[in-house]
């Protein structure tokens, strides 16, 4: 039998005698592999963006406007637009003329909400539910009752909506169309060819043209190929003959129907990339710590193998084979966990509003294979390095180290720790000098580099803490602490494996949460601080019609009113260089005699000229672009339109989260709904204005009136979605680190059964041993907490400084919750492990193998 086969047989046979250590490695690898596969699935979902069409399912091809903004400084990167890119009406004829097209059906969409007793029956502001009757064929809608809407004032509603509201053909119904209440007669009820979750209201051709928020355009075109024509081939012909359009087939058609699908790509990639990178680092640290601990506990056995003739190479190979055998089984089982976790994370992201409900989770063989390969690579690397020191040690030296493990780390680990420490400081220092809106992406990795540094120096840190604070612990914890301090010092290597996940959990939790709360507060303050209002009128029924805007303006006590429109876009010439992070655009009315709703100081120019194609730029943006008042620049707005605008004013806006100010009517014309959903009002008496507007708003469907706090609340809602990504990352990373801490702690305690037996034979009872273990766990928990807090400060404090603050923002209960969670991880795990370790009587325990 070859030496390789002998080593393999010895490695596999030894696993049966090391159930606890093998289980610890299995759990760490199993969960890590599951998380990696989940991240791979999220990334694949972001790339594929699979969203099966519903209302457009009957049309084999769907043609829309431009897919997104092709970044001038990137060869191929395209960023989706924030709004729907429309098509000119004359493009329909060009599409129809392409050989192989049987029929091209234009579709116009506009905000339509069913009213019940004058109020929206359901929140439908984000759903463009109104369409022309011609586009009913795109979803295979067939009349089950009544007739088509041939004259203005008639409407066909879908069967689901009709059933829920108790409506039928011939009934009168009130609808809010583009924010304005109107009465219609239901001419018919239609049933789609498949399930469609969104309500649909089909109007006559005349009404559809009248309600179109972008006259002269269509939202998209559904194409039916001629008999025998392949949809994919026809898509290529249309793309070639009618350039600058997006031709979609299959499940890709869903991105044209559901506006949020394309926009979810960047958040999903961010979620997958950031979380995947975090999991890689956390997994590498946790698996390395667990494997190192199990190898350290076998130091005496490995030394005996060396003393009986085994070569360093054989010892090294045996340890690696044992670990890889466990790792292979754990990775295969982790594939099942990865499927469950991926679906759970994705569904949670959908329920939190991070991704649209219509987007389907995609996770195929590539995600599973990639996760398993990376997991096995990390496991192999951890096992290879963990076994290296034991294999190289001389037999007599190894036996001595097994009795009293050394705490000094080698030169390579020390150098790695210094590099990680320097990187942490450098990242923190760099963050301070960056704008707040980009600082988090730079400073965030400081948590991981700091944790890696702690992991590399773990034994020395534990030893230093015990040497420095041991006397204090003895005074506080009493006589049971004496042996605990000695044990902690002697077992610094083992306790370092527990220290690593505790440090990680606390650093990630505090760093992610408080960085996000600090940035969020600054973001909301910056956005809301650019505006001033005594009352804020908001619509949940699609927006405000011109008549409603006029009535608001004429309300007694109102001196100034302005629609507020928000979107995003780029300065294309000269290019602003913002790439995938477009500038925030705000649309307001020009300054009048009553004043303006802008609170930002004008440093040059005048807001009275904010009319037509004009823009007011933040002074910092103007300086970067080297433009001044009177300059003409070209902007790429949210719907993809390139619009030349003249700079009429420069604003003293905050350097972070600054907004470009456009005329409200200009910006609204390039949004999906074409309407403003908020109106800002100023006047003499805020209370009187709110009261007067509230009385008037009773006749307006879905309209609410609030004070200026409603302004911050609207920004808060959008900022919350971004924050939820970080919170979700933090929860998952903390959960993994917590499981790893329990896992490693249990192994460390269970390996000391002989020690506990000897102590009991010497006169100690089980209670004294448990108290000793609690003190040991407390030392490690406090050390990990302090280190986690310090590491998180390298992320949180620079983030606060970029926002102009010294003290980070956030609820104190998060800090207290993290502290409590760490002790709830350490002490219950210690108590349970101690109970299991002392089940046998003392004499039997002393006879057992182990340390």
What is the structure about, briefly put?
It comes from Amycolatopsis halotolerans. Residues 274-393, 728-841 form the ABC3 transporter permease C-terminal domain. With 851 residues, the protein is α+β, with helices and mostly antiparallel strands.
Q: Main traits of this protein?
A:
alpha+beta; nine-stranded mixed β-sheet; 28 helices; membrane; Macrolide_Exporter_MacB; transmembrane
Question: What can you see in these coordinates?
Answer:
By secondary structure, the chain is of the alpha+beta class. The protein is built from 28 helices and 27 strands. The chain is 55% helix and 16% strand. Helix 2 crosses helix 11 and helix 16 runs antiparallel to helix 19 (492-529). The strands form five sheets. Strands 18, 19, 20, 21, 22, 23, 24, 25, 26 and 27 form a ten-stranded mixed sheet that branches. Strand 2 and strand 3 form a beta hairpin. It is a multi-pass membrane protein. The chain crosses the membrane at residues 268-295, 323-345, 365-391, 415-436, 442-466, 492-514, 724-751, 772-800, 812-832.
């Amino acid at each position: 039998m070859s030496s390789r086969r002998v080593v393999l047989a010895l490695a596999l046979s030894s696993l049966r005698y090391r159930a606890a250590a093998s289980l610890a490695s299995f759990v760490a690898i199993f969960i890590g592999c599951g998380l990696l596969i989940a991240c791979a699935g999220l990334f694949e979902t972001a790339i594929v963006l699979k969203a099966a069409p519903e209302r457009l399912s009957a049309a084999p091809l769907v043609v829309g406007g431009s897919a997104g903004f092709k970044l001038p400084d990137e060869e191929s990167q395209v960023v989706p637009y924030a709004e729907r890119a429309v098509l000119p009406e004359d493009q329909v004829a060009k599409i129809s003329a392409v050989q192989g097209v049987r029929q091209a059906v234009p579709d116009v969409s506009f905000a339509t909400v069913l009213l019940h007793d004058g109020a929206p029956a359901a929140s439908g502001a984000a759903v463009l539910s109104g369409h022309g009757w011609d586009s009913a064929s795109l979803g295979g809608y067939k009349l089950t009752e009544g007739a088509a809407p041939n004259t203005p004032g008639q409407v066909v509603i879908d069967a689901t909506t009709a059933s829920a509201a108790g409506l039928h053909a011939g009934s009168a119904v009130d609808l809010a169309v583009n924010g304005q209440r109107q009465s219609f007669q239901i001419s018919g009820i239609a049933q789609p060819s498949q399930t469609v979750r969104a309500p649909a209201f089909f109007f006559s051709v005349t009404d559809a043209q009248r309600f179109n928020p972008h006259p002269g355009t269509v939202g998209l075109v559904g194409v039916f190929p001629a008999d025998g024509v392949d949809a994919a081939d026809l898509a290529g012909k249309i793309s070639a003959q009618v350039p600058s359009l997006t031709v979609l087939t299959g499940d890709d058609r869903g991105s044209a129907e559901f506006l949020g699908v394309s926009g979810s790509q960047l958040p999903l990639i961010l979620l997958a990339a950031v979380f995947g990178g975090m999991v890689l680092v956390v997994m590498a640290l946790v698996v390395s710590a667990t494997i190192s601990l199990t190898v350290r506990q076998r130091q005496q056995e490995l030394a005996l193998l060396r003393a009986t003739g085994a070569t360093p190479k054989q010892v090294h190979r045996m340890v690696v084979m044992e670990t890889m055998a466990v790792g292979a089984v754990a990775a295969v089982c982790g594939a099942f966990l990865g499927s469950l976790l991926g679906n759970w994370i994705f569904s949670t992201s959908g329920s939190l509003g991070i991704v649209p409900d219509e987007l389907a989770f995609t996770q195929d063989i590539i995600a599973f294979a990639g996760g398993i390969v990376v997991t096995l690579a990390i496991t192999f690397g951890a096992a290879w390095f963990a076994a290296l020191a034991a294999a190289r040690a001389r037999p007599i030296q190894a036996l001595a180290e097994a009795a009293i493990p050394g705490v000094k780390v080698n030169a390579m680990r020390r150098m790695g720790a210094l590099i990680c420490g320097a990187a942490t400081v450098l990242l923190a220092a760099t963050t301070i000098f960056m704008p707040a809106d980009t600082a988090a992406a730079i400073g965030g990795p400081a948590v991981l580099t700091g944790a890696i540094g702690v992991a590399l120096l773990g034994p020395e840190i534990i030893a230093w803490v015990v040497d420095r604070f041991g006397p204090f612990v003895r005074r506080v914890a009493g006589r049971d602490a004496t042996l605990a301090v000695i044990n902690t010092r002697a077992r610094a290597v083992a306790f370092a494996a527990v220290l690593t996940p505790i440090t990680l959990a606390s650093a990630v939790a505090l760093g992610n949460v408080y960085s996000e709360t600090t940035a969020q507060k600054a973001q909301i303050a910056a956005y809301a601080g650019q505006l001033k209002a005594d009352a804020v009128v908001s619509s949940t029924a699609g927006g405000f019609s011109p008549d409603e805007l006029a009535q608001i303006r004429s309300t007694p006590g109102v001196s100034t009113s302005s629609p507020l429109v928000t979107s995003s876009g780029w300065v294309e010439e000269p290019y602003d260089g913002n790439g995938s992070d477009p500038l925030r655009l705000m649309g307001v009315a020009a300054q009048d005699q009553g004043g303006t709703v802008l609170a930002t100081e004008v440093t040059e120019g005048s807001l009275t000229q904010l009319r037509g194609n004009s823009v007011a730029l933040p002074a910092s943006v103007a300086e970067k672009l080297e433009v001044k008042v009177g300059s003409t620049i070209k902007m790429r707005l949210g719907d993809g339109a390139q619009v030349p605008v003249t700079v009429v004013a420069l604003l003293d806006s905050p350097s972070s989260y600054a907004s470009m100010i456009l005329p409200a009517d200009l910006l609204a014309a390039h949004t999906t709904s074409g309407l403003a959903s908020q109106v800002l009002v100023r006047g003499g008496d805020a209370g009187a204005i709110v009261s007067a507007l509230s009385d008037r708003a009773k006749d307006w469907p879905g309209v609410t009136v609030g004070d200026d706090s409603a302004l911050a609340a609207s920004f808060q809602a959008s900022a919350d979605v971004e924050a939820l990504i970080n919170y979700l990352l933090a929860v998952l990373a903390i959960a993994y680190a917590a499981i790893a801490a329990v896992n490693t702690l249990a192994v460390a305690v269970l390996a000391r059964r002989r020690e506990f037996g000897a102590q009991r034979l010497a006169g100690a009872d089980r209670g004294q041993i448990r108290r000793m273990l609690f003190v040991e766990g407390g030392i490690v928990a406090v050390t990990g907490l302090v280190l986690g807090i310090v590491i998180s400060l390298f992320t949180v404090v620079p983030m606060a400084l970029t926002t102009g603050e010294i003290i980070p923002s956030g609820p104190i209960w998060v800090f207290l919750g993290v502290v409590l969670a760490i002790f709830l991880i350490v002490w219950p795990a210690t108590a349970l492990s101690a109970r299991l370790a002392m089940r046998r009587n003392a004499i039997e325990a002393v006879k057992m193998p182990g340390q």
